[in-house]
From TrEMBL:
Residues annotated as signal peptide: none
Gene3D superfamilies xref list: Metal-dependent hydrolases, Urease, subunit C, domain 1
Family statement drawn from the similarity comment of this UniProt entry: Belongs to the metallo-dependent hydrolases superfamily. ATZ/TRZ family.
Keyword vocabulary terms for this entry: Hydrolase
Protein known as: Amidohydrolase family protein
Domain Amidohydrolase-related: 65-357
Organism encoding this protein: Nguyenibacter vanlangensis
The organism's place on the tree of life at top rank: Bacteria
One of the Pfam families matching this protein, by short name: Amidohydro_1
Molecular-function GO term, any one: hydrolase activity, acting on carbon-nitrogen (but not peptide) bonds
Length: 373
């Protein structure tokens, strides 16, 4: 089969993108022809070009459906299998029941466990239809090779920051700053991103990922954003992800997290905000402005929406349909355990409808597009 196209013949169903209609369509009795990672043909078997008609059926598609691979835009494979599920019902009451500051630092995978954690997470993603994943992890030995062996297209996003957080009393968060360490971590991350692009498997790419808006200096955010632009890669940051963070940024700067990112000039079409929940009009974080959603839309920045991890804590994006109607692009992530992408798609639809009080606020088509287009 080396050197010739690969054919899946006679699929009962195929979910294909119709460029003219701008939507996915269902096709019966379909063939798909591929070569070297490229799709040469996808459509009705009756319309198969003559040049491919003589190809043998490498896979008999009867009784099967083919669809686009899902894109997981936000995950932490090297850590989540070791902590999620252990403290999902635990949180600091004095910190709005967040587990970020008191519990998460306790449940950390050690260096020896990270490869196995990643393999478990990658396998779960593959089983739920994911073919491309953004892996947000702190750098660990062997990361690129483990990512390559998974068979996934992995966007390596090594996280870095200028500060760490902790709480000693359960109601205040303190930050320990080391700006020089943040600079070194950025340099290491950029080296790893360059190595991913050069990896022999051809399926690794990179993303610049300052860890959190409240743990990075303004200069680190701006310089990392510029580095991403120079490399032509995306830039993603955790922001508007907790009530504590919202209040911390407004205390420091007098503006919301989204407005602070905008003031720094780091919101753009290649920017992704994970998780973008606590805006200035969210009921949990009311502010005197009501402009955050418009700012995101105006800058064409995207949101990494991870419904499961927040639903387990009693919070939700408000709401999927409202963001899309405002012009904000949304992708879906599995910042949880297990990394079952289909569960996150289902929950994105259910929560979107509940939050909006309307069944058409988060249609199956819209949620599927968020994970594919």
């Amino acid at each position: 089969m080396a050197g010739r196209p690969y054919r899946i013949a006679g699929l009962d169903w195929a979910v294909l993108w119709d460029e003219a209609a701008g939507t996915h369509v269902y096709v019966r009795d379909a063939d798909i022809v591929m070569l070297g990672g490229r799709i040469l043909f996808a459509g009705r078997a009756a319309e198969l070009p003559a040049e491919y008609a003589s190809l043998p059926a490498d896979i008999d598609g009867s009784g099967l459906m083919a669809m686009p691979g899902l894109v997981d835009v936000h995950s932490h494979p090297a850590t989540e299998p070791m902590n999620r599920g252990l403290f999902d019902e635990l949180g600091s009451p004095g910190l709005y029941y967040s587990s970020l500051y008191e519990y998460m630092p306790v449940f950390r995978s050690d260096a020896a466990s990270k490869p196995d954690c990643a393999r478990v997470a990658y396998a779960e993603m593959l089983l739920s239809g994911v073919t491309t994943v953004v892996d947000l992890s702190t750098p660990w030995a062997g990361w690129l090779d483990v990512a390559a062996e998974s068979g996934l297209r992995v966007c390596v996003a090594p996280m870095f920051r200028s500060a760490s957080w902790t709480t000693t009393n359960g109601h205040t968060v303190t930050y320990s700053w080391d700006e020089a360490a943040g600079r070194r971590a950025l340099a290491q991350a950029l080296d790893l991103i360059d190595a991913a692009a050069a990896h022999g498997c051809g399926r690794l790419t990179g993303m610049v990922a300052p860890a959190q808006i409240d743990t990075c200096t303004a200069e680190l955010l701006q310089d990392s954003f510029a580095a991403a632009a120079r490399r032509g890669v995306p830039w993603q940051i955790h922001a508007a992800q907790s009530i504590v963070e919202f209040h911390e940024i407004t205390r420091r700067h007098g503006v919301t997290p989204v407005q602070w990112l905008d003031r720094l000039g780091v919101l753009a079409p290649h920017s992704i905000v994970g998780h973008g929940i606590f805006l200035d009009d969210h009921p949990s974080t009311p502010w005197h402005t009501k402009t955050d959603l418009a700012v995101l839309a105006g800058r064409d920045a995207a949101i990494a929406h991870c419904p499961t991890v927040f639903a387990r804590r009693g919070y939700a994006l408000r709401d999927f349909g409202r963001y899309r109607a405002a012009g904000v692009r949304i992708g879906i992530g599995t910042d949880t355990y297990p990394h079952t992408m289909l569960d996150d798609l289902r929950l994105a639809a259910y929560l979107g409808r509940i939050q909006a009080g309307a069944p058409d606020a988060a249609s199956t088509r819209a949620v599927f597009e968020a994970a594919t287009v």
